[in-house]
Amino acid sequence: MSKSKRRISKSNVKPRRSNVATANPADVASIDAIIAAAYDGISGPAGEKRDWERERSLFYPGARLIPTARPGANDDLAPEMLDVYGFIERVEPYFAGHGFYEKEIARRTEQFGRIAHVWSTYESRHSPDDPEPFIRGINSIQLFYDGSRWWIVTIYWQHESTEHPIPAKYF
């Protein structure tokens, strides 16, 4: 079996919820609350260790965080598939040396039954006092309500660029 097929088959295994950190009920009581907690969890000054236990508690077992990035200098944009642990591993070195404060500036939400899709427009700053963001973009967030709390299933995002400016409907 190839390495990529092993990855796929491993990702199809349903993890047990008992492996998930216990969430603060206030963080997962509503769509507004879980989105605010997700942004709050990754924001902070350079060198400050984030509360990764809290962040992990927001995500359904097997959830994915998918930045859209350039894999190589001359490559087109492509999704990078990460689980929560892979995301933490990816961002910790950056957070060690840089302040990072991300906040939602606009949102479009659609919900049907126990699923929701949120288009969350964001701005990122190195300090909350920075007059201008160093980057903006859109998070596509899929959520699931299990009858007692909300879970993040996927966050898929792309930064704004001159080639791909944020459309007015997302402000």
Point out poorly predicted stretches.
1-16
Q: How many domains? A: 1
Q: What overall form do the CA principal axes indicate?
A: globular
Assembly state: single chain
| Overall CATH architecture | Roll
CATH topology: Nuclear Transport Factor 2, Chain: A
Task: Give me the side-by-side strand order of the main sheet.
Answer: 2-1-6-5-4-3
Give the distance, in angstroms, between the N- and C-terminal Cα atoms: 46 Å
Q: Tell me the series of helices and strands, N- to C-terminal.
A: HHHEEHEEEE
Strand content: 25-35%
Q: What is Rg? A: 16 Å
The class by helix and strand makeup works out as: alpha+beta
> Count of DSSP E strands?
6
- How would a crystallographer describe the biggest sheet? 6 strands, mixed
Overall CATH class: Alpha Beta
Number of helical regions:
4
Overall pLDDT metric? 90
Helix content: 10-25%
Primary descriptors:
171 residues; alpha+beta; Nuclear Transport Factor 2, Chain: A; 4 helices; disordered N terminus
3D structure, described in words:
The protein is α+β, with helices and mostly antiparallel strands and 171 residues long. The chain has a single domain, classed as Nuclear Transport Factor 2, Chain: A, CATH 3.10.450.50. It has four helices and six strands; from the N terminus they run H-H-H-E-E-H-E-E-E-E. Strands 2-1-6-5-4-3 form a six-stranded mixed β-sheet. The longest helix is centred in the middle third of the chain and has 14 residues. The N terminus is likely disordered.
Topology:
Blueprint: H1 3-11, H2 31-42, H3 52-57, E1 59-69, E2 78-79, H4 84-97, E3 101-112, E4 115-125, E5 135-145, E6 150-159
Parallel strand pairs: 1-6
Antiparallel strand pairs: 1-2, 3-4, 4-5, 5-6
